[in-house]
Amino acid sequence: MSIGFQVLQRPRKVDPQWVERYRELPVANVSDSMNRMTAAGTRLRPMHRQGVLAGPALTVKARPGDNLMLHYALDIAEPGDVIVVDAGGDLTNALIGEMMVAYAVKRGVAGIVINGAIRDAANIGAGDFPLFAAGVSHRGPYKDGPGEVNVPIAIDGMVVEPGDLMIGDEDGLLCVPFDHVEQVHARAAAKYAAEHKQMEQIAQGSNDRSWVIAALKTKGCALLGEA
Question: Could you say which residues bind substrate here (predicted)?
């Protein structure tokens, strides 16, 4: 074993049925159902025109500015995988551009997450291939390594294990741990349904706002008209 420069076997990955079920849920609802404690940071934004990201994580730990291990991850990715790259958030060199995206699409990759920079932003931004990144740089990458594939990584405190479920939409990215996918989905689906009902009540003018006054009184807020 060569820690820091190795490719490991992914021991497991989330089942495709859960990938499809999560596609129907807003990331915000899933995040709320995980107690709002997990996030990949506000810098990681969608670089593509539109489209939901969902799939099992194929993780890459890359040296900042180097994409050798990302290239290998593209070669071994299975259809439906989301390649998640921890490049330390460095924006000096872009790790991916339009040619690598074209290859990812050809390979059936479901999306890519780069905790780092991309280039060819106009071309990528005109497409629907889900790609999240921290920024843009015209400077290209090196291809020397080291790096690791299928190891645990962390992006702004969000831990991603190989095979975990990655989801992303206009509000950002989220990792749902493999062992909690079913439980979190049940909570998020219930919240999604409750919010739809609340939206209907707002449209009808029947939504209950009594909780606001109750919360203020519970916290001891001085209200208008009260001595």
Answer: 97-100, 119
Q: For domain 5-187, give the CATH number.
A: 3.50.30.40
* Residue 119 annotated as part of some ligand binding site: yes
Query: What residue spans define the domains of the chain?
Result: 5-187
Whether the pTM exceeds 0.90: the reply is: yes
Q: What is the pLDDT of residues 179-221, one digit of tens each?
A: 999 999 999 999 999 999 999 999 999 999 999 999 999 999 9
Triad 28, 168, 177: Cα angle to 5°:
80
Condensed to tens digits (0 to 9), the pLDDT of residues 94-149 reads: 999 999 999 999 999 999 999 999 999 999 999 999 999 999 999 999 999 999 99
Residues 6+ apart with CB under 8 A from 167: 22, 23, 25, 27, 30, 52, 53, 54, 173, 174, 175, 176
199 annotated to a ligand binding site: no
Rounded to the nearest 5 percent, the helix, strand and coil shares of the chain are 35, 25, 40
* Structural element, H or E, at residue 7: strand 5-7
Find out whether 120 is annotated in a ligand binding site: yes
For residues 22 and 53, the answer to whether their CB atoms sit within 8 Å is no
| Residue 159 token pair | 């831990």
43: left (phi over 0), alpha (psi -120 to 50) or beta: alpha
